[in-house]
Amino acid sequence: MAASAKYIGEGSGTLALDESVFGERFHGPLVHEAVRAELAAQRRGTASTQTRGEVSMTGAKAWRQKGTGRARVGALSSPTRTGGGVAFGPKPRAYTVKVNRKARRRALRAALSVHAERGSIAAVDPAGFDTPSTKAAVAALASLDGDGRVLVVLTDGEESAVKSFRNIRDVTVMHADAVGVADVVGHARLVVSEKALTRLTEKAASR
Questions:
Q1: How far apart are CA 99 and CA 81, in angstroms?
Q2: Quick check: helix, strand or coil at residue 172?
Q3: How far apart are CA 158 and CA 177, in angstroms?
Q4: 62-100: per-residue pLDDT in tens?
Q5: pTM, two decimal places
Q6: How far is Cα 57 from Cα 155, in angstroms, rounded to an integer?
Q7: Each residue of 90-124: pLDDT tens digit?
Q8: Which 3 state secondary structure label does DSSP give 204?
Q9: 56-60 — which CB contacts under 8 Å span 24+ positions?
Q10: What is residue 148's DSSP assignment?
Q11: Cβ-contact 143, 8 below 8 angstroms
C-alpha cells in the first residue's frame, strides 16, 4: 500500500507520497554526514584572537636579565602573561564540509522516509487560511498525531498559512526550497502543503 499523508484541519482525504522518495532505506552514517555539513555551513567562523605579535604592547624586554633577584623574563606580550597574546587561539576560518549532491539527495530521502514510515507526516491545505489566523492553525495542529516539535513546510503563494503557523510555540515554518536534512530529522512531526510536497519530492528525487 502506497504511503500517504492525512490532511489536518479543514482539509479532507489524504495526500499521496512518492514511493521512490518516501520509501528510501534509512542510512544513518549518510544522514549524519549531511546534517553535520548543514550545521557546519551555518557557522560564521569569525572567531579571532590576537597572537603575541598582534597585541598592542611593547616588544621590549620587561627588565634586565640579571641583578634584579627576579626570574628572567622576555616580552610582556608572551601568552603566559596577563594581557599577552593567545597561543593557538581561533582565527577566521570556513567550516564548510563537502557532501556530494547524490549523497545529499539520498540523505533527504532517508530523512523523509522515516516520517512516512512512522506516520508523523501530515498534509495541510493553505486554501483554508484566507486570512492569517493563529487560532485556526492551532486547531489544525490539535488533530495532528504524536507530540514534539513540528516543521511546517510551505511555498510561494501560501503567505497566509505561513503567518498563521509562525507564531506557535515549538512550530517552525520553512519554505520548501530551504528545507534540509537537519530540519527534517530535527523535528518530530512534519506538515506539508501539496505544492511544498511536490517541491520536496523534486529536491530529493534521484536523478
A1: 43
A2: strand
A3: 14
A4: 899 999 999 999 999 999 999 999 999 999 999 999 999
A5: 0.83
A6: 55
A7: 999 999 999 999 999 999 999 999 999 999 999 99
A8: helix
A9: 57/83, 57/84
A10: S
A11: yes
DSSP secondary structure string for all residues of 10-33? T--SEEE--HHHHTPPP-HHHHHH
What is the grid cell recorded at 196?
Answer: 511544498
Please give the Cα distance from 172 to 190 (Å, whole number).
10
Return the closest-CA partner of residue 75 out of 83, 67, 200, 106: 83
Closest CA to 124 of 151, 92, 104: 151
The number of beta carbons lying within 10 Å of the beta carbon of residue 158 is: 23
Separation of alpha carbons 156 and 45, rounded Å: 32
The DSSP H or E segment spanning 122 is strand 121-123
C-alpha cell at 147: 507530540
To which H or E segment does residue 135 belong?
helix 134-142
